[in-house]
Amino acid sequence: MSRGGTHKPPAPLRVGMNVDVLLYDGFDELDGIGPYEVFDYALDYAAQGGDRAGRVRYVTLGVDATAPEPEAADAPDLLVVPGGGWNARDEEASAWAEAQKGDVPRALADHHAAGTRIASVCTGSMLLAEAGVTDGRRAVTHAGAIDELRESGAEVVDARVVDDGDLLTAGGVTSGLDLALYVVEREFGREIADRVATVIEYERRYAVAGRDGERADRPE
Questions:
Q1: Which of 12, 127, 143, 148 stands 20 to 30 A from 154 (CA)?
Q2: Pairwise CA distance, residues 93 & 108, whole Å
Q3: Residues 107-139 as b or e (16 or more Cβ within 10 Å = b)
Q4: Cα(167)–Cα(75) distance, rounded to whole angstroms?
Q5: Hey, where are the domains in the chain?
Q6: Is the pLDDT of residue 29 over 50?
Q7: CB 117 within 8 Å of CB 81
Q8: Sequence-ordered alpha helix ranges (H) in the chain
Q9: pLDDT digit string (tens) for 127-170?
């Protein structure tokens, strides 16, 4: 896997944050749509409360990219990378296929180098590994790809969500909901995060490994 990721201090997300969710052929729908729904509700609730909430949208990266360049005015504050088809080695439509093509990993490396905060769900972290973003960084992925993530140079952490500053990673599929709710609580407060969890009828799990190795679990 490629190397060269740069560990930059995280730029704090501002109220009014812009979130982009990456789509590609073969992405896992829940990996991408789950966090989208969480952010969409949260930004709407924040706007109702008088905050300039920002926007959430789907984008593509690569040769026919529709996402803005990393330095563009409408570049995302947070870029969410779903997984899909990695362990099956689907050569036509999957995270694995995108890793082999190389266009998406190169674009992710460019965004990370420019200071974009990046979050991955499930084997989306393997696209980040291919981009060199997880090298030497604390991260997690789907259980079926843990060994590969470790071998790529990441420091694998046993947690549902791992917060490593400008890099957030989540384990398999539904953990993307916990990642998104974790970000929402940090940026907009517990009330909005709990309101979103209620409306999507999701019982939050708080197995989050915070920065510097501390546990960010919240007691019942």
A1: 12
A2: 18
A3: bbbebbbebbbbbbbbbbbbbbbbbbbbbebbb
A4: 17
A5: 18-213
A6: yes
A7: no
A8: 29-48, 95-101, 103-113, 124-130, 146-151, 175-188, 190-199
A9: 999 999 999 999 999 999 999 999 999 999 999 999 999 999 99
